[in-house]
Amino acid sequence: MADPLATPHLALPYLAAAQAQKHVTHNEALRLIDAMMHLAVEASGATVPPSAPVEGSRYLLGASPSGAWAGKGGMLAIFVDGAWLFAAPSIGWLAYDKAADAVLVRKASGWVAI
């Protein structure tokens, strides 16, 4: 079931009426939009976080990642503001894998080169 406090496709957080610190929710939505639009990732199937990630870098995680990515298998990992942010990709998303020089599509079975 979709989160009633977030948009249905990208799960962007809504501002709530009478919410304190609305800028926090708004900035979170902007971070997610920035990370997910025109998606180009450093690598797909990644399982080990880089030791010195670059701000804004994105990775499609493999099934059993470790370290800071543990428990986030299959997610999109984004390094922003000095920390990892995770998003669940939806079927139909497209991504360019820089390491493989390939365009991928998200299917029910996972990421597939097209």
TrEMBL record:
Name of the protein described by the UniProt record: DUF2793 domain-containing protein
Organism annotation: Kaistia geumhonensis
Species lineage: Bacteria, Pseudomonadati, Pseudomonadota, Alphaproteobacteria, Hyphomicrobiales
